[in-house]
Amino acid sequence: MDNLLKFHEERRNGLYAGCSYPNLVEIYEYFPTSYFAEVTSELMLAVFLGEEDLTLGEMSRIARYNGIPFSALVCPHLITLDRGRWKHRQMIKRLHEKLFTIWELQKKGSQYAKRYMYRYGAAGRCDYVNMDLAFWDGRIVTYGHYLGVNHAMDDTILFASGEFRKAPRGLANVPKTDETDMPA
To answer: Which domain holds residue 36?
Structure first.
């Protein structure tokens, strides 16, 4: 069975409820944690079950390469967003602004933005909308979920914006100059 499918099945069955790293469990589907920790996916799932433990170096690589605060990864409590906090409302507001940036890029013809807007599941617009609704309804939104949605939006904006940049100067696309334009 694919490790990501196994992860979702075990998570749904509550097998990771006692994990020492609940925030790491939350970001697992969004970030390449096993890759940057330099461990196998099987070992990462064993960590979630409490059968193994990650070293300090492995945890710091996950934090550094994914741009996640180290303190959030090692926190023994699940970090959630609170709509009563101004900072958390501003974080959600920035995601809303990013969604409109992606929408504008889609209207310009970006295939990356189009793919984001129509993708289903744990990536794309639907994931953001579900998280936004949960936040404003007062339901639990984890910091890991927020980080994953933010990461997907940033990547989409980065790649979609790249579709509209001008071609780099090179030997094949140098504009032809008329010899009469050349200085004497």
So the answer is: 3-74
